[in-house]
Design the sequence.
């Protein structure tokens, strides 16, 4: 009995250590991806987590698996937002909620925009099916919003991707300016509407032409100057 108990305790300790290592790796991945992009070396993530590269690969055998793990919560939130949008009585309200949710996630987690847009090559069949279903659901939502008369008739589902790419670029250039993000999202949503907007825009950003976050030839970015 004592031997069996000791073995159980040892297994529990190993499992607890594995869980802690996994959580450290996920936190480190989010931090590294935010600083260096999702193409940052896997070894950099391991060093940030304080574990060996072999430990990283035991938990996440591919970069795709690491990126999915790091941003699983955000992707689940996007999936729920799309489901809620489809279930909404008013399709325009649903579409608005979806756009605002995804853009808020892009704004709050600096590594997430790139992950959302292009870090999911869907090499596995089940993930490919998930993306295809999401694209079908989005098309249904767009058609419903157009049928309701709220969404402009020439809107195409790909326009939403363009909008998210634009917002992704803004967030990357101005990670500390949430007002610019909210105002751009409001502009985009108003441009989607079939009828003229009635609600005022959020407060403007303090960004000026002198403070454009241009990237010098040698790398790095200039801190935006505000009025």
Sequence:
């Amino acid at each position: 009995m004592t031997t069996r108990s000791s073995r159980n305790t040892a297994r529990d300790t190993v499992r607890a250590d594995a869980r802690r290592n996994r959580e450290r790796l996920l936190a480190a991945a989010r931090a590294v991806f935010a600083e260096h992009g999702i193409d940052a070396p896997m070894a950099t993530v391991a060093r940030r987590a304080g574990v060996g590269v072999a430990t990283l690969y035991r938990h996440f055998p591919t970069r795709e698996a690491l990126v999915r793990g790091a941003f699983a919560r955000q992707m689940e939130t996007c999936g729920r937002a799309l489901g809620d949008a489809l279930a909404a009585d008013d399709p325009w309200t649903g579409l608005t909620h979806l756009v605002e949710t995804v853009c808020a996630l892009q704004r709050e987690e600096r590594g997430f925009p790139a992950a959302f847009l292009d870090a999911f090559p869907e090499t596995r069949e089940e993930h490919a099916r998930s993306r295809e279903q999401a694209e079908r659901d989005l098309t249904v939502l767009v058609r419903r919003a157009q049928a309701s008369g709220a969404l402009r008739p020439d809107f195409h589902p790909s326009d939403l991707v363009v909008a998210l790419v634009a917002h992704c670029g803004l967030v990357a250039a101005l990670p500390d300016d949430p007002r610019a993000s909210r105002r751009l999202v409001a502009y985009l949503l108003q441009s989607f509407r079939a009828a003229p907007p009635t609600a005022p825009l959020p407060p403007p950003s303090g960004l000026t032409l002198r403070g454009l976050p241009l990237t010098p030839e040698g790398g790095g970015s200039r801190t935006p100057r505000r009025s």
About this structure: Residues 2-36 form the longest helix (35 residues). Confidence is low (pLDDT under 50) at residues 216-227. The chain has ten helices and no strands. Residues 99 and 136 are 16 Å apart (CA to CA).
